[in-house]
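Dear support,

I submitted the protein below through the web form. The confirmation email said the job was done, but the results page showed an empty box. After a refresh the structure appeared. I'm attaching both so you can tell me whether what I see now is the final result or a partial one.
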Amino acid sequence: MTGARAANPVELFLAMLAAERGAAANTLAAYRRDLTGAEEVLGDLAMADAAALAGLGPAWADLAPSSLARKCSALRQFYGFLVDEGLRADDPSPGLPRPRARRPLPRLLSHAEVEALLRRAEEEAAGDRPEAVRMLALVEMLYGSGLRATELVSLPLSAVPRDAPFLTVTGKGGQQRMVPVGHCAARALSRWLALRPQGSKHLFPSRSAGTGHLTRIRLFQLLRELATRAGIAPEKVSPHVLRHAFATHLLEGGADLRVLQTLLGHADIATTQIYTHVDSARLVALVNARHPLGQARGTGTGVDFLAPRPSAD
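What the results page shows now:
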């Protein structure tokens, strides 16, 4: 460490998150809890070495893998900050305990299940009943644009453009991003705008008096009721499951992980990497079809170079 330690390194790190990354108050509070918890075990975090960090394993042995991964991520970022700022010469974070491998997403809708859900919503919206048309628009936006539940229900009417296929969405930490709206979602939105009650600044206003919007809890309830009518087990469906389906199905279709990160509004690419649990056979087929070694040089004959090689005996 250098002599520049008048300020608490943890506070300096949190100030950087707020100023440079626009971290929200809840995010800063979560980082503070994780770093303070580690400090209770290790003492001065800024002085801890790799051997000391390894001692966090037994102390955090009862944590869920996701909680352990979150705490280790906070510490890695903290030590990276110290090195970048010249407050420390080495990075001890390799000594952190390693969380168990992240399991695949616990719930994921298949293409057929999503189609059944959308088909049911379309059938119910055929008569232009406002509640049914609203439900169709909500489902189309969740699956077609990958919005978080809070982002969707709190959309202001001004977020819907008149002549561009994008929505302006305010996500976590107040960060804004442009989200594409597909043809089906755009048609559903147009139908809903023609039937939408007036007097609220929100795209999906609450039915109660005032200017509030549809709640996340009500959205969750509506989706499960729709799933039941579509013949899908209701416990399999939620707003976040449709966001998972959007991301996974897009990645299966060949989308770039960085593009997916932008669409989902993830600050860290590591968060997006959870969606790389796509079918391994599809990945092998993709590499064999697109990699230069998938074609024999000068012959145009396909070569499955990921297949087992014949023995040289």
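Response: this is the final, complete result; the empty box was a page-load delay. Confidence is low (pLDDT under 50) at residues 1-5, 297-313.
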